[in-house]
Amino acid sequence: MKKNSICEQFGLEYPIFAFTHSPDVVISVSNAGGMGVLGASGMTPEEFDSAMKRITNACPEKAFGVDLILPNKYVGMEDGGLSLEALEKHIPKGHRDFVNKLLEEYEVGELEDQEKLASLSAKAGSSVSLSGARALANIAFKYPIKLLVNALGTFPEEFRERAHAQGIKVGALVGQVRHALKQKDAGVDIIIAQGYEAGGHTGDIANTVLVPQVVDAVAPIPVLMAGGVADGRQIAAAMALGAQGVWTGSIWLMTEESETHPVVKKKFAEATSADTLRSRSSTGKHARQLKSSWTDAWEDSKNPDPLPMPLHGMLISDAKLRIEQDALKAKKGATELINYFVGQNVGMLNEERPAAEVLQKLTKEYEETMGKLGSPTTSSIK
Amino acid sequence: MKKNSICEQFGLEYPIFAFTHSPDVVISVSNAGGMGVLGASGMTPEEFDSAMKRITNACPEKAFGVDLILPNKYVGMEDGGLSLEALEKHIPKGHRDFVNKLLEEYEVGELEDQEKLASLSAKAGSSVSLSGARALANIAFKYPIKLLVNALGTFPEEFRERAHAQGIKVGALVGQVRHALKQKDAGVDIIIAQGYEAGGHTGDIANTVLVPQVVDAVAPIPVLMAGGVADGRQIAAAMALGAQGVWTGSIWLMTEESETHPVVKKKFAEATSADTLRSRSSTGKHARQLKSSWTDAWEDSKNPDPLPMPLHGMLISDAKLRIEQDALKAKKGATELINYFVGQNVGMLNEERPAAEVLQKLTKEYEETMGKLGSPTTSSIK
């Protein structure tokens, strides 16, 4: 696979970025020539610091990055983030009752380790706010990261200034041209155009249409295509659309290194591309995820609407842990409810492999695709 | 642009298929080396026969095709299609009242030419049924077409047998792998994978994910990518994803030859890719179209749900004509209501050009894209 300017800029063998919440995937991908990017959101500062230390030690001289979630709008933003106690007061009782009733209906047991509850609630509340993001960024800046990305909004200037002062590039995910232009104005170094097909927080515009328009709008800022990449054909397509690389996520959830819940892995392996939806049921913002009884319940118009960020994550953090715990024990209700963020490419993700092998497979398939496409000068009949 | 097996099969210069309701676009595209495909649905048998005669005379020795709409489910299908009178009885009064109230609210005037009403109602009722499709196919078979396509379902065997007996290839649009497999079993010669981003009746899965899976599922049947094509970059992407060509639609609505309503053309030129939606408001089935006050009204959960095919088309045929008539006079309400089917690529369609020029532009951009991508063997640094 030919090295391009993105590779040179970040010191990569391949312009393949791997978004993941698993430090082990970051380590494998970065050591194999791609760019591992650790999603810090959902981690406590202590957990994140420990993960960064491990990655730094395991990836000497290799490029890796960090992804934060700092939306342009969230409850408490006027104050840069409210305390958990203050946020808890914004969660209506009706919503708590609905979640409890849902778990009861699916016979999901109580948490065995009560500490988990407090821990996850803290994470849910603290990471999606300016102060929460600042705390995580302060940790990230202690390590030799090459890239800091905001998955949902525009970083305040302090983040970019500090990153640039340390030689760290700043990136952002966008789902519309107008958002890309805002990021360009804000001075980001790389833009990730994320299509409708992508897992996680994503917009409504598919990559065939989104990528070329973002490329044209932000030139000469390089663009990565996010969403839909399951094999090398989609990388070739991304390049054809004008991207300089790809931002991948779902594909790593099926790797051996990934922390994906085993029941979720099994569901992913069996799912088709028709088995995902964009739903507010897991974070409060539209995020593509596997359909399950959980998303069915929240999409039902008879039930309460999801809450805005970060309230929804706080509301359901206990429930998610209880479902994960019961699904591990193969309990029926929890197995029906459990789901996770994943793109429409889930239909192409059928087996578990080591992350380095996945990366090699992608580059090999890319080469094969390019070989089949051929060069127009040599293979044209006209 | 290199000729491939699709070109050889159909005698084309370029593997670019142009779906259109305008005979003039078919003529221009087919004469310029692409494949014009006339959408017959919505035409009376007399109108369709006259269009086919004109195309045949204007395109000697050139390839062109016909597209019908024969869904797998529609009201009256047990009987192969009901009479208009019988179908009219299935339209609830509440729906008629809602449409009348909507037009009143937007101050849309009565039809000036009462004949138009009867004519369009007949079209709406008759074309979406086995007997209606059979009547149109009987006309199509009189002309030297190269391709007969079903845009929505699986053709009954009689259609394929007759087509094949005359050396006509049969194609079908699909939005899911399982539909592609059904079409393969039914013996189609070419499959058009239509992504979420496409205009008109389309499914939920984006092309980056849909196309490679359909290609793998139906091999060696050739696959075209439908949806998202606005310039040559998307054609290169389609080829990278494994398609052997592209099926285009929206792009021709902005050509000089197209019959597109002038107010719709203006709206298209100004629209971004965020200005479309999949809605049942225009045919009763999910179809991507421009957002307007019309789609807003039907998407509002307080209002009646759209009716199934072909009832919805019959219900609104009068309204559509009245809106078109008033929009031509620049009346405010009708201008707000008017819309048309179009893909998310509408954000890239900004100017009117002759169809032959559009085709040449696509192929030139495709060549440029392929040139930039380069061949892996010569430009790889590794």
From TrEMBL, chains A, B:
What Gene Ontology molecular-function terms does this entry list? Answer: monooxygenase activity
Task: Alphabetically list the UniProt keywords.
Answer: Flavoprotein, FMN, Monooxygenase, Oxidoreductase
Region of interest called Disordered, as start-end residue ranges on this chain = 276-305
Q: Determine if Flavoprotein is one of this entry's keywords.
A: yes
Q: What is this protein called?
A: Probable nitronate monooxygenase
Protein's job: Nitronate monooxygenase that uses molecular oxygen to catalyze the oxidative denitrification of alkyl nitronates. Acts on propionate 3-nitronate (P3N), the presumed physiological substrate. Probably functions in the detoxification of P3N, a metabolic poison produced by plants and fungi as a defense mechanism.
The yes or no answer to whether the keyword Oxidoreductase is present is yes
Signal peptide boundaries: none
